[in-house]
Amino acid sequence: MAKVKVQTAWLDSCAGCHMSMLDLDEALIGLAEKLEFGSSPITDIKHFSPCDLGIIEGSISNEHDEEVAKDLRANCKILLALGDCACFGGINTMRNLFSDQDILSRYYATESTSKGGAVPTSPELPKLTKVRPLNQVIKVDCYVPGCPPKAGAILYALTELLEGRIPVLPGEIMRFD
To answer: pLDDT value at position 115?
Structure first.
């Protein structure tokens, strides 16, 4: 049986969701027999190719995030939003309360920088946008919320997907202990 091809992306977030995927521990061994990981922060493969499942962690906070999200969506059959940032925008949405100039000034010209620290102007810096959850930019097929999601919730979702079902997480998995 052919393995299910999976690719993941890490947008504006803390990487806790990818860490929770690693927290699957020994369940990863069983999944490794069924999944083939392509592009992801874990494999460090940089470009997306056609795949069965795309998983995105993080909110969309700049033009680059939007391009990455659209690229993965275009290359996957099913897209899973992983974690509160991807599902709802997360804590990153607090940035929406401030102007881009205020955000950049605070980041680049703070007490920790030399006097007169200036906001760099480089075409390599992505243009900031309003922080948004994935579903405000691309089609999302399923959601695994949490900050970060529990490893059990991720395992449940992956198992459901491997069985050909779109996961809807039951309440007992979503409860925070």
So the answer is: 60
